[in-house]
């Protein structure tokens, strides 16, 4: 079973490259690290980059995870091939574009493109935010799933993730002490649902809430507090309908807490998503059956 060290990057194919970069800098507060005609690399922490916007929506969404060693990467590739999963080794050019030494690529059962990488580039320059959003790190992604139970089995059985909690059948998955690095999100199609950045404190969330509204940015959900991780949150829309989340105070398990933690089952109801009473403006919640999250008090 693979042992994912950490989430590393998201690659977002877009037909609106300039707009996405502008939004990431002016609204989100990310630092532009590199830009060429086909791609733009941005970050919200000291790593080389966290998001790479790639020219062309056909490139789709890709999530990259770091393996601690090249040997572990090779082992993960071999294990997955033995299990009948189609694994492709990245070319030298693909590795260069991702600033990694080595990589493999495969899909989860929903069809989400996943990359495992070794020796991603470190950066000697500290993160220089483009706006005072208070971002401290890139932390997790919301990942669309068309079959939450099957994807959960893949992430836990093949990739070594652990379930921290469920909301209905959608698991919040951890790969280290942080409550989750992948939040499965029920959907009719695959792809990245949201990209999360941690901010320092709840004041950052509230300041951004006012700032985003002033800038005419559509708020998707919040400000609120997740029942599951305990994090205070704010979700908002960027270009192409991509959702970004700022949150702070996500639960971090100690080794002892991890050892004894039993995942909690939350029902699909408003208070499972937000203990403060905020209502989401998110398509999947709107299209829920009558009487569920979009409608219940
Ligand atoms: C609504 C999504 C899937 C969700 C649910 C819970 C948390 C959390 O506990 O922090 C999230 O971060 C989410 O994105
Ligand atoms: Fe999230």
From TrEMBL:
Keywords: Dioxygenase, Oxidoreductase
Protein's UniProt keywords contain Endoplasmic reticulum: no
Top-rank EC class of the record's enzyme: oxidoreductase
Pfam families per the UniProt record, alphabetical: Glyoxalase (PF00903)
Alphabetical list of CDD domains matching this protein: PpCmtC_N
Gene3D superfamilies in the record: 2,3-Dihydroxybiphenyl 1,2-Dioxygenase, domain 1 (3.10.180.10)
Domain (VOC): residue spans on this chain: 6-119, 137-249
GO molecular function: 2,3-dihydroxybenzoate 3,4-dioxygenase activity
PANTHER family cross-referenced by the UniProt entry: GLYOXALASE_BLEOMYCIN RESISTANCE PROTEIN_DIOXYGENASE, LYASE, PUTATIVE-RELATED-RELATED
Protein name per its UniProtKB record: 2,3-dihydroxy-p-cumate/2,3-dihydroxybenzoate 3,4-dioxygenase
Organism, scientific name: Sphingopyxis panaciterrulae
């Amino acid at each position: 079973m693979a042992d994912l060290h950490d989430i590393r990057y998201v690659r977002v194919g877009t037909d609106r490259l300039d707009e996405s970069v502008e939004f990431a800098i002016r609204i989100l507060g990310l630092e532009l690290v590199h830009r060429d005609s086909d791609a733009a690399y941005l970050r919200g922490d000291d790593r080389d980059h966290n998001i790479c916007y790639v020219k062309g929506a056909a490139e789709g969404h890709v999530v990259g995870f770091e393996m601690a060693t090249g040997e572990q990467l090779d082992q993960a590739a071999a294990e997955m091939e033995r299990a009948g999963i189609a694994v492709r080794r990245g070319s030298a050019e693909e590795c260069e574009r991702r600033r990694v030494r080595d990589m493999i690529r495969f899909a989860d059962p929903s069809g989400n493109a996943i990359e495992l990488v070794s020796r991603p580039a470190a950066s000697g320059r500290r993160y220089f935010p483009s706006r005072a959003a208070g971002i401290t790190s890139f932390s997790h992604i919301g990942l669309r799933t068309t079959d939450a139970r099957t994807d959960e089995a893949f992430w836990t059985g093949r990739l070594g993730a652990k379930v921290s909690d469920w909301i209905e059948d959608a698991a919040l998955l951890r790969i280290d002490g942080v409550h989750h690095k992948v939040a499965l999100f029920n959907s009719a199609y695959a792809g990245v649902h949201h990209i999360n950045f941690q901010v320092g404190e709840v004041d950052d969330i509230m300041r951004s809430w006012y700032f985003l509204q002033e800038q005419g940015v559509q708020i998707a959900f919040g400000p609120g507090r997740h029942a599951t991780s305990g994090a205070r949150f704010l979700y908002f829309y960027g270009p192409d309908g991509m959702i970004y989340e700022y949150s702070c105070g996500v639960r971090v398990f100690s080794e002892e807490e991890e050892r004894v933690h039993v995942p909690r089952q939350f029902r699909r109801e408003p208070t499972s998503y937000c203990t403060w009473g905020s209502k989401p403006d998110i398509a999947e919640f709107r299209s829920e059956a009558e009487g569920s999250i979009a409608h219940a008090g």
